């Protein structure tokens, strides 16, 4: 925003930028309780993942250390390497100043605003009027896809950067420089657009922000979309395509370097997880778009709604939720009908000289994107996604094909703006609007009669869904019929109608609660040892009592906190053997499966209390300990043999430790303070066994001397200790973090240099090149 000196300048600025203002304020208006009203998100992931992670991260940062490891989750788990903890994502640092639940909820809404403004800025590259770009921004930021995942914080945050990345990846005005000097030329056009170096720096910064936001699947889809967008719009000649492709590759490489401090530890965790090679197909194909939900693109509640406690559809409501309101769909259809065929073809051929984005090409690209998006979102319901899973790298890593609907949302939003920009009143439109009005009225009457006369729940829910869609359709067609020759006021009514339709639906899909939930203290506490909740009990309590997919039930905060669902105990400083992280070490997963069948393994894991259904906690009277001194060992060749040995009924963890061949990871004392220190006294040579997860990056020292870290009892850590009194120190200083820090630091220097060259030296370089 320029420096404003008086009211006239402010009015002039607002008159030019009111679409950005609307896109920024609309989410805040509908979710004002989350920004100003003192309410917070809680449903499922905020309470069970994002707030507990942020609490653990804040504790570490306030103690002056990196949040590398937490003993509170699992049997100890990497915290910073957990990608969705998003430790280095700058907006998340607000949680250091505000209570985490307040910061997370407010930031979720502000990211919707960021997404809307980004779409407005992208739409301006199409030379659309203010009405058209406002439709684009509102449709995207209040879309079913965006608001339906508001509580999935990392998806919400990552999606906000999608339009900005596509905008930054859009091809610049064509004036190709010599190939070898492509990254140095300034290339300033009449509008003063920054040069290639500055553009690469800007694009890399945006991609890095999205990578740090914490949702790899959204970043993967965004980079695919930006790549195809760039290639599609750079086909004017091979030099343009080559120049833009090299610029994009440079930006992506630099972005990966900037985010390396997060990506390398996450990659290390991924290699240790069951998804190291690829996720199982059944896991990946879960939450494929249910084909019947295609009808809900027009009638969103055709199969009920969890806020009405009557959702009848497959899996979850929100994963398949892609409602965009009927008016934007009509505008998008009008754009296809007029611009793909022949009407307006001449006026759509070229845009501003500095835009390089012909509307006709955007329409064709958007239509293609819609087809691809919906087809892939259907997942296991078509043969296309299985082919992508088996043969296209990346599609075998992520769950929920329905999330491909982000492309559909992006493309339809653009088309809606293009159609709205060219929408004019006509007798033909009024004719079809009258027909639509009659059909909508008839549908509403018949649906209401069905609701009153039918008794079956399914029939009543579906009839109610038709009735709701008919009401929206009535409003839509009445607006079309009421369009005057001078449409300015009408345009404001259209924007208000779109915002109300999408915004009210968004609020219903995101229940909020008083922050009191996060500050309750359960009656039970555990000073030592770990809690554990068996998987069947956890699943039943989580999805049958508190977070049912079919219904948003009222939740009693005290009952939820007393349920000790993972990762809630972390809020109270209670260690849990459970872990609700998306990526977990494979051996940890295998150990839990074995522990479910062999409760003796609870002793090895130092489980001192079991959580029963609905929060009843029972202390175990068993020989549990986190620390053990044993004098005999059994060496086995691999993990399978180790798991077999510790599940043998004859195995005594107090007398013997099962050891696998050590990897020699001796090193000098690390600087990081993530450590466990103990003084031990052994009568004879033996082993010090720590019931914490063995994980790359842990080192062990005895009396200050580095020693081989042993993998003990399949999952845990141990070190050989000679007779006598000794100080044993376990320290966590992963090489992946050190390398990530170095790579990120170098990348920051490269980024600053690239930006400085592009901004400050570009004109001189351009003169030399010319």
Describe the structure in your own words.
Helices cover 50% and strands 9% of the residues. By secondary structure, it is α+β, with helices and mostly antiparallel strands. It has a four-stranded antiparallel sheet, with no helix packed on it. It has a four-stranded antiparallel sheet with strand order 11-17-13-14, with no helix packed on it. Helix 1 (7-30) crosses helix 4 (100-124). The chain starts with 6 loop residues before the first helix and ends with a helix.
Task: For this entry, give a set of tags.
single chain, 770 residues, alpha+beta, 4-stranded antiparallel β-sheet, 26 helices, 17 strands, 50% helix, disordered C terminus
What layout of secondary structure does this protein have?
Elements: H1 7-30, H2 32-35, E1 40-41, H3 45-62, E2 69-70, E3 77-78, H4 100-124, H5 130-141, H6 144-148, H7 153-159, H8 162-169, H9 196-213, H10 216-232, H11 238-258, H12 260-272, H13 281-285, H14 326-340, H15 359-377, H16 384-391, H17 405-421, H18 427-453, H19 457-481, H20 488-508, E4 512-513, E5 530-532, H21 535-546, H22 557-562, H23 586-597, H24 601-604, E6 607-611, E7 617-619, E8 627-630, E9 632-635, H25 639-646, E10 656-659, E11 675-682, E12 686-690, E13 698-702, E14 705-707, E15 710-712, E16 716-721, E17 724-732, H26 735-769
């Amino acid at each position: 925003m320029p420096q404003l000196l008086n009211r006239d300048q402010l009015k002039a600025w607002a008159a030019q930028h009111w679409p950005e203002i609307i896109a920024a304020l609309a989410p805040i208006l509908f979710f004002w309780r989350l920004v100003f009203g003192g309410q917070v998100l809680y449903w499922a992931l905020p309470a069970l993942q994002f707030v507990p992670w942020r609490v653990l991260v804040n504790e570490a940062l306030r103690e002056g250390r990196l949040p590398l490891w937490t003993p509170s989750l699992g049997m100890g788990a990497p915290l910073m390497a957990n990608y969705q903890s998003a430790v280095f994502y700058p907006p998340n640092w607000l949680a250091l100043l505000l209570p985490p639940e307040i910061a997370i909820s407010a930031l979720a809404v502000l990211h919707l605003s960021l997404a809307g403004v980004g779409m407005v800025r992208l739409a301006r590259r199409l030379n659309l009027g203010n009405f058209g770009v406002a439709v684009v921004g509102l449709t995207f930021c209040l879309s079913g896809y965006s608001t339906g995942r508001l509580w999935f914080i990392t998806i919400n945050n990552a999606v906000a950067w999608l339009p900005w990345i596509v905008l930054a990846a859009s091809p610049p005005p064509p004036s190709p420089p010599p190939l070898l000097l492509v990254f140095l030329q300034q290339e300033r056009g009449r509008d003063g657009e920054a040069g290639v170096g500055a553009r690469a720096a800007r694009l890399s910064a945006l991609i890095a922000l999205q990578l740090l936001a914490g949702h790899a699947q959204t970043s993967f889809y965004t980079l695919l979309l930006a790549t195809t967008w760039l290639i599609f719009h750079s086909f004017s000649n091979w030099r343009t395509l080559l120049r833009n492709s090299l610029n994009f590759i440079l930006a992506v490489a630099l972005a990966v370097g900037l985010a390396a401090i997060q990506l390398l530890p996450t990659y290390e965790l991924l290699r240790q997880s069951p998804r190291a090679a690829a996720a199982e197909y059944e896991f990946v194909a879960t939450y494929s778009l249910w084909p019947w939900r295609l009808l809900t693109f027009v009638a969103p509640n055709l199969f009920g709604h969890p806020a009405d406690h009557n959702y009848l559809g497959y899996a979850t409501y929100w994963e398949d939720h892609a409602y965009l309101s009927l008016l934007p769909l009509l505008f998008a259809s009008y754009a296809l009908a007029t611009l793909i065929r022949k009407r307006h073809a001449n006026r759509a051929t070229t845009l501003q000289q500095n835009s390089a984005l012909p509307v006709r090409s955007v329409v064709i690209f958007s239509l293609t994107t819609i087809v691809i998006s919906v087809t892939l979102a259907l997942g296991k319901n078509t043969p296309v996604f299985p082919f992508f899973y088996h043969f296209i790298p990346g599609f075998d890593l992520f769950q929920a094909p329905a999330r491909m609907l982000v492309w559909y949302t992006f493309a339809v939003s653009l088309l809606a703006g293009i159609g709205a920009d060219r929408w004019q009143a006509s007798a033909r439109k009024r004719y079809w609007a009258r027909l639509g009005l009659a059909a909508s009225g008839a549908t509403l009457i018949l649906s209401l009669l069905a609701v009153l006369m039918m008794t079956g729940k399914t029939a009543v829910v579906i009839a109610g869904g038709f009735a709701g869609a008919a009401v929206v359709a009535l409003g839509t067609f009445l607006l079309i019929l009421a369009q005057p020759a001078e449409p300015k006021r009408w345009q404001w009514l259209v924007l208000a109608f779109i915002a109300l339709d999408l915004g009210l639906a968004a609020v219903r899909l995101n229940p909020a609660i008083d922050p009191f939930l996060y500050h309750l203290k359960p009656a039970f506490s555990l000073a030592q040892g770990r809690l554990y909740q068996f998987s069947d009990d956890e699943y039943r309590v989580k999805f049958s009592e508190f977070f049912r997919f079919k219904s948003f039930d009222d939740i009693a905060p005290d009952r939820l906190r007393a349920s000790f669902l993972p990762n809630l105990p972390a809020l109270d400083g209670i260690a849990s053997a459970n872990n609700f992280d998306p990526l977990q070490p494979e051996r940890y997963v295998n150990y839990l499966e074995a522990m479910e069948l062999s409760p003796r393994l609870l002793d090895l894991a130092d489980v001192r209390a079991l959580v029963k259904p609905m929060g009843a906690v029972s202390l175990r009277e068993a020989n549990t300990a986190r620390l053990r001194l044993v004098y005999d060992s059994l060496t086995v060749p691999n993990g399978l043999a180790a798991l077999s040995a510790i599940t043998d009924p004859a195995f005594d963890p107090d007398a013997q430790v099962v050891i696998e061949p050590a990897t020699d990871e001796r090193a000098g004392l690390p600087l990081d303070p993530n450590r466990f220190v103990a003084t031990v006294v052994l009568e004879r040579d033996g082993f010090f066994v720590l019931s914490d997860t063995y994980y790359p990056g842990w080192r062990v020292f005895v009396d200050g001397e580095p020693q081989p870290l042993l993998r003990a009892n399949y999952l845990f850590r141990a070190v050989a200790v000679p007779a006598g009194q000794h100080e044993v120190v376990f320290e966590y200083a992963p090489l992946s973090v050190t390398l990530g820090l170095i790579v990120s630091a170098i990348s920051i220097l490269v980024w600053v240099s690239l930006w400085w060259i592009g901004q400050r030296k570009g004109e001189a370089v351009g003169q030399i090149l010319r």
